[in-house]
């Protein structure tokens, strides 16, 4: 395995039924560090996350993790292979408490300290373990969703807009945690907040109408004069 290609996506086509959304997407992530996926609304970012997780089939191309081709594997097996996913919508069980949300997430993990590590990462969750998740603030809910995804101890964590609907003060807190996390595992982040995404990420890929239009280091992409055109509505 090339260290830079721990997560390796090649020539991926995917979509919904006959409607193709992704066209020949090729991107990679190293085994540690952050990778940002940018692009305007509808560019295909969520579709890409779903295709990487196996929630949508690849029509063409491949998804590999640590040189293992997972393109044909169902989502649960991808989770076992090391993928973690924090989807944009409905990321927690709204009727369960924080404690029970974490207990469900921990079912597949024999390490009893896994929940403690999540509570160390997000102390706010530990202060309200018996609160029903549906009554949490947007930020707390996102923290719980990230914490839950981490309980399967993924080696690559995909996050789809982890700061959407989150108050600015809490955005900083979540971002700081993701920066730390990216020192340990691969973090792939879809984010509307460009500055935040590029603080977490060392590399960025910009999608435009389902194709990779721009890629480079965070600084290269931030300074590329074409970036605004690809992000403009
Ligand atoms: N379930 C679906 N069925 C059919 N088309 C869909 C479905 N979900 C998304 N699409 C279409 O796929 C395209 C890409 O959508 P996607 O949600 O991947 O974009 P995005 O970049 O994540 O946008 P956003 O920033 O708004 O979340 C859009 O044209 C969208 O209308």
Automatic annotation (TrEMBL):
GO terms for biological process: L-amino acid transport. GO terms for molecular function: ATP binding; ATP hydrolysis activity; branched-chain amino acid transmembrane transporter activity. It holds the Pfam family ABC_tran. Residues 7-231 form the ABC transporter domain. CDD domains: ABC_TM1139_LivF_branched (cd03224). It comes from the Bacteria. Belongs to the ABC transporter superfamily. PANTHER family: HIGH-AFFINITY BRANCHED-CHAIN AMINO ACID TRANSPORT ATP-BINDING PROTEIN LIVF. Involved in beta-(1-->2)glucan export. Transmembrane domains (TMD) form a pore in the inner membrane and the ATP-binding domain (NBD) is responsible for energy generation. This is Amino acid/amide ABC transporter ATP-binding protein 2 (HAAT family). It comes from Rhodopseudomonas pentothenatexigens.
